[in-house]
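Interim report, section 4.2 (structural modelling).
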Amino acid sequence: MKTIFLLNGPNLNLLGQRQPEIYGAETLEDVERIARDALADGFTLEAMQSNHEGALIDSIQEARTKAAGIVINPGAYSHTSIAILDALNAFEGPVMEVHISNIHRRESFRHTSYVSLRADGVIAGLGPEGYAAAVRRICALVPAGPQPIR
Ligand code: CA2
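Predicted structure of the assembly:
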């Protein structure tokens, strides 16, 4: 079984509770289920959300030995965190960056993402469906066979 890490950053625990006009009505739990439903055979999903940059970095480092790929919505850290970029640069597998909203149609400070410098793909504006597309892409990119022991 190969593991995909699904990481959600700050404030995404509030999904479905506020600003549905931007982020939709689905909760974080819904998003994690949508992502899980998109897994190909032989893959499993490990999901976490944190409001703390260091906790996200700890998970990315953990992924180095435990995950075949990472789907990450870094939230506002996308636009600020060189530390998350550095952690992702130390991960060898595919990385998909997801934004629920279309960050390019929003304030200019959301138009750049440090994480995009590392991501193999970037999805923005598809709503929760973006997580499913990202999971499908990771499954397609990861070679078949057992997870290598690093
Ligand atoms: O569109 C996205 O997924 C974002 O990564 C979401 C971040 C934002 O800072 C990025 O620019 C784009 C914010 C997540 C906040 O989520 C909330 C959800 C419901 C209510 C309040 C905040």
